[in-house]
Amino acid sequence: MAELLVKGGWVMYVILACSVVAVAVIIERAVVFLRIRNDDDELVRAVEEAVRGGSLEGALAACRRARGPVSQVLESCLVEWPAGHERMVDAANYVGNRAVEALDKRLRGLSIIAQSTPLLGLLGTVLGMIKTFMRIEELGGEVNASALAGGIWEALLTTAFGLAVAIPCVFMYHWFEARVAHYASLIRDSAERLVALRKGASEWSR
User: Fold this and answer.
1) Per-residue DSSP letters for 95-159?
2) 11 to each of 15, 31, 73, how far by Cα in Å?
3) Which of 154, 152, 151, 166 is nearest to 119 (CA)?
């Protein structure tokens, strides 16, 4: 491996550094998403049942026992329950946006690595090919096929390495983005259901 890095030139080290950063981001984000795994549908049902039963404290307790952005948003809505549905909407928007931003953190960097490493690999290959043809010119074209092939495969190393880093980064980036979109949808739907209950309670009390 070390020999291939040397043959590929300085671009290989840049791609290697990108791969280290990408692995760190992937592991960190995976840990974050694993920690917030929760039965959010069951949580929403428990909160709604508690609210319908007149137990605001019970609903808050259910949120505090759970993990993840959905429980945070529901709790913020319940705290503002006495103030009315408009305050609940404001709280849900604020906390929900913060939660989604936290989930989306560092994913832009992973996307940049996924897009830039193939280009870095191509740059390394082009530079390697330039060196190969400069060497051929220096030798006056008297180069055997094996020497020429050796220069070409060394030049192509960077493209292969860049793609090897970029492909898993692309898959993981889109997987994380899908999880963020999933939680954003859950946050919106659960908050809307709770606000609708508050509106219904206000209309019933009139």
Assistant:
1) HHHHHHHHHTTTHHHHHHHHHHHHHHHHHHHHHHHHHHHHHHHHTTT---HHHHHHHHHHHHHHH
2) 6, 31, 45
3) 166
Q: Which of 178, 167, 163, 180 is nearest to 102 (CA)?
A: 180
Indicate the helix (H) or strand (E) that contains 195.
helix 145-205
Q: Which two tokens stand for residue 38?
A: 């929760």
Q: What is the pLDDT of residues 85-94, one digit of tens each?
A: 889 999 999 9
Q: How far apart are CA 129 and CA 181, in angstroms?
A: 43
As a whole number of angstroms, the distance between CA 155 and CA 9 comes to 9
Domain-wise residue ranges, the chain: 23-201
pTM of the model: 0.83
